[in-house]
Amino acid sequence: MTAALDVAVVGAGLAGVGLGVRLRRAGRTGFTVLERADDVGGTWRDNVYPGVACDIPSALYSYSFLPQQRWSRVFAPGAEIHEYVRDVVRTEGLAPHLRLGTDLTSARWDDDAGTWRLTTSRGPLTARVLATAVGRLSEPRVPEIPGLGTFPGRVFHSARWDRSSLAGLRVAVVGTGASAVQLVPEVAREAASVVVLQRTPPWVLPRGDRAYAPGEEPPDRAALAEDAELLFDARIAGTRAEADLTERARAHLRAQVPDPALRALLTPDYAVGCKRALFSDDWYPALQGPHVTLEPSAPVAVEGSTVVAASGARYEVDVLVLATGFETTRPPFAHLVTGRDGRTLAEHWAAGMTSHASTVVHGFPNLFVLDGPNAGLGHHSALEVIEAQIGYVLGALDHLDATGGPLEVSAEAEAAYTAEVDRRAAGTVWLRGGCRSWYVDERSGRLTLLWPGRAREFANRFGTFDPVPFQEGSGSRIRAVGRMSGDR
Ligand SMILES: Cc1cc2nc3c(=O)[nH]c(=O)nc-3n(C[C@H](O)[C@H](O)[C@H](O)COP(=O)(O)OP(=O)(O)OC[C@H]3O[C@@H](n4cnc5c(N)ncnc54)[C@H](O)[C@@H]3O)c2cc1C
Question: Which residue in 421, 64, 420, 53 sits closest to 210, CA to CA?
Fold first, then answer.
């Protein structure tokens, strides 16, 4: 017997749209995707800075059930990825299921009714199942720099790009992460001068981007995925693979930066991969442009139009670009979601995000968190984990149909998964590499953003739904009906 489930999906990025497609293809039409913005695309709608592009080979960056065969480049520009998501919505007939311009403002589990009660900017809703797909790089992080509010010129975050011209202007870019490495070379082409304020240098690897020739066959996805998985080995601290990757990055730096003094400023003092390893062939050349300055310290104050660096250096600029990343370890949406005991996800996660299977949380029945705790990958496409999670949700829905639910993972299962993640993370560069990164929760020192294993292992273990972790101990509310697969 299949009961018609009402599923509320929050967020129309690749995770929410992908789940919508799979729900519809499975014949489950009683779902809605809520999206606060007026368009789909998530990351690729919001990040429109010059140079924005995939930072893994794009052949790995489309749904396996809807592969994109026509990327224009090895690393597709962001606008193309955005267009791909829009295309998926069109070709899969998802539009009737979308509620754009609808912000989820709270979600509360009603235990008596066995339903989620949602409030949104467009009124209340109820949903038997809630799937959050709100992203982990969707809330810009703005640093607290004294005086920032008094800056008289344009100031904006890289994910909220101000498209007005930079021609003839003096620009300061704060940060040297993945966005900065892509945008600085482009900004340097246009601006009169650029100063890059670097707290910590990134490790940078050669990129090898190029346009595909007309009619060129797309690369073999399975072979590329194999290659990507090998990169996980370099994330285990002290391995040969880590040493080899370090040498590749050092050789790239030596080849592109002849000046030993500048090279020293650009050489990280932590293990490669501890912070996200970046791919660029034009970052180092851009920093050596005659009108570009590398300031090797973070900004500590803004005084009028002057940015003051920790080193004491002062830079008068017209535009301030904050390439300062996102709120990752403390996702704002966690304050909006209240579970069975009246506790919010943020309270449950007071010492850092935890879950079972990176997708379900004890105390939060019929809730599925996509692309949340330990669901990122430092070495491969985010879609590998997202697709596995979608398979898990579909299997859970089958299970709910069969049992009536609700479905709440046990405290023991969540504790066991968390202990496994911690044990495996302990040997990785993410915890042993000597850096501070957005992968690690500063409150507990736990790795909470990344899955510390290969993508294939995650998919094999968690791409299908297993009801057993929902039966043990205090969280058990359901009867076993056997293992079910949502990955069809
Ligand atoms: C600049 C940049 C480049 C990246 N490059 C790569 C790459 O090359 N490879 C890779 O694997 N990953 C990359 N990533 C990571 C990328 O975020 C993921 O690959 C993927 O796009 C995440 O999809 P998502 O659907 O989980 O989240 P998002 O794309 O962030 O979508 C979340 C959606 O939820 C909506 N939302 C949030 N809160 C609410 C609310 N309360 N109510 C309603 N709607 C809400 C947001 O508006 C957004 O549309 C990159 C990230 C950034 C920022």
Answer: 53
- pTM as predicted: 0.95
**Per-residue model confidence as pLDDT tens digits over 375-410:** 999 889 999 999 999 999 999 999 999 998 899 999
The residue contributing the CA closest to ligand 1 atom 4 is 54
Q: Give percent of the chain above pLDDT 90.
A: 94
Residue-level pLDDT at 482: 31
CB of 385 shorter than 6 A to ligand 1: no
170-174 and 193-197 strand pairing? parallel
Q: Is the CB of 382 under 6 A from ligand 1?
A: yes
The C-alpha torsion from 298 through 300 and 301 to 305, rounded to 10°, is: -10
241 φ, ψ (degrees, to nearest 5):
-60, -40
Residue 181 CB–ligand 1 contact under 6 Å: no
User: Length of the chain in residues, anyone?
Assistant: 488
**Ligand 1 within 6 A of CB of 35:** yes
* Per-residue pLDDT tens over the stretch 323-352: 999 999 999 999 999 999 999 999 999 999
Dmax (CA) for the chain in angstroms is 71
| The pLDDT of residue 1 is above 80 | no
Q: Which domains does the chain have, with CATH numbers?
A: 3-139+327-484 (3.50.50.60), 148-322 (3.50.50.60)
Query: Taking residues 304-311, what's their average pLDDT?
Result: 98
Going across the sheet that includes 319-322, the strands are: 154-157, 319-322, 170-174, 193-197, 292-295
CA distance 148 to 305: 10
**Helix ranges restricted to H, 3-72:** 14-25, 43-46
State the DSSP string of 157-216. EGGG---S--BT-EEEEE--SHHHHHHHHHHHHHBSEEEEE-SSPPPEE-----BPPTTP
